[in-house]
Write a structure and sequence with these properties.
The protein is built from ten helices and twelve strands. The chain has 287 residues and is of the alpha/beta class. It folds into two domains: 129 residues, Leucine Dehydrogenase, chain A, domain 1 (Rossmann fold), CATH 3.40.50.10860; 143 residues, NAD(P)-binding Rossmann-like Domain (Rossmann fold, 3-Layer(aba) Sandwich), CATH 3.40.50.720. The chain has a six-stranded mixed beta sheet, with helices on both faces. Strands 9-8-7-10-11-12 form a six-stranded parallel beta sheet, sandwiched between helices. The relative contact order is 0.13.
């Protein structure tokens, strides 16, 4: 393990609560593996203290920080620059300190696409996709899917109006016309039956509500369908267990967690991230 000294470069994660984050284990293990003199620390920050915390990051010379709930949207007005993707997503999960200028990035969407390619060997271009959820995670995912030119997209949220608004937003920025479906409707299940990729971007199935599933057992899949659950705790959700029983490929959200972290790692260090090492560290931390 490296020793912290006067030359150690500081990184970390800000949020509230922060105790559950596995990012410190992922990043510090990766720094150690590559013999990089960096340190990654969890920093609890209350909403009312966000502006002061960012000024502290600037003044203390942090290389950068990850940003998590509840600051991903609130952080934007306090930054000097925001990338086009982060602006489009409306959320920032990485802030780089570039010689005193704070620049916001979003690595969630790219991490999702990288995970699909690496964990499932799946290219979304020209595919039919159904996304469950219309919140922040769904927005990051749907923007990347639209950008990578999926053929069709269906969005279904318990708040139908929110589904419609996300569809309108995607349609206004891309040459794609997603459509909204009510949850657990015949129309939704017909779309799932015909889709190539089903994504759960809701918290349904996340611990401690791990006995819940966003769809019921009556669902029918094509044999080649990929079922991707952004939830990673538990690693095998009720939805992924259902996918297994239906004979289709289940993918856990741990892949997106690790790969968005890997993109952040490369932004911090300008080095290629040791993805396998980071995944092993994340799994160990979750256990």
């Amino acid at each position: 393990m490296f020793e912290i000294n006067g030359s150690t470069k500081l990184t970390g994660i800000i949020g509230m609560p922060i105790e559950h984050s596995v990012s410190p284990q992922m990043h510090n293990t990766a720094f150690d593996k590559l013999n990089l003199n960096y340190c990654y620390v969890p920093i609890p920050v209350k909403p009312e203290d966000l502006e002061k915390a960012l000024e502290g990051i600037r003044m203390l010379g942090f290389v950068g920080v990850n940003v998590t709930i509840p600051h991903k949207e609130a952080v934007i007005p306090h930054l000097d620059e925001v990338t086009k993707l982060a602006r489009l997503t409306g959320a920032v999960n990485v802030v780089l300190n570039q010689e005193g200028r704070l620049v916001g990035y979003n690595t969630d969407g790219p991490g999702f696409i990288d995970s699909l390619k690496e964990d499932a060997g799946f290219d979304v271009t020209g595919k039919k996709v159904v996304v469950l959820g219309a919140g922040g995670a769904a927005k990051a995912v749907t923007i990347m899917l639209a950008q990578d030119k999926v053929k069709t997209m269906v969005i279904s949220d318990i708040d139908y109006e929110r589904s419609e608004k996300l569809c309108e937003y995607i349609n206004s920025h891309f040459s794609l016309a997603p459509y909204a479906c009510p949850v657990k409707s015949k129309e939704l299940y017909k779309s799932i039956e015909e889709c190539d990729l089903l994504v759960n971007a809701t918290p349904v199935g996340m611990y401690p509500k791990d006995k819940e599933c966003p769809i019921d057992n009556s669902v029918i899949f094509k044999p080649e369908t990929i079922v991707y659950d952004l939830v990673y705790n538990p690693l095998e959700t009720k939805l992924l267990k259902l996918a297994k029983t239906k004979g289709v490929k289940p993918i856990s959200g741990i892949g997106m967690l690790v790969r968005q972290g890997a993109v952040a790692f490369s932004l911090f260090t300008e080095e290629e991230a040791p993805v396998d090492i980071m995944k092993e560290a994340a799994l160990k931390a979750l256990k």
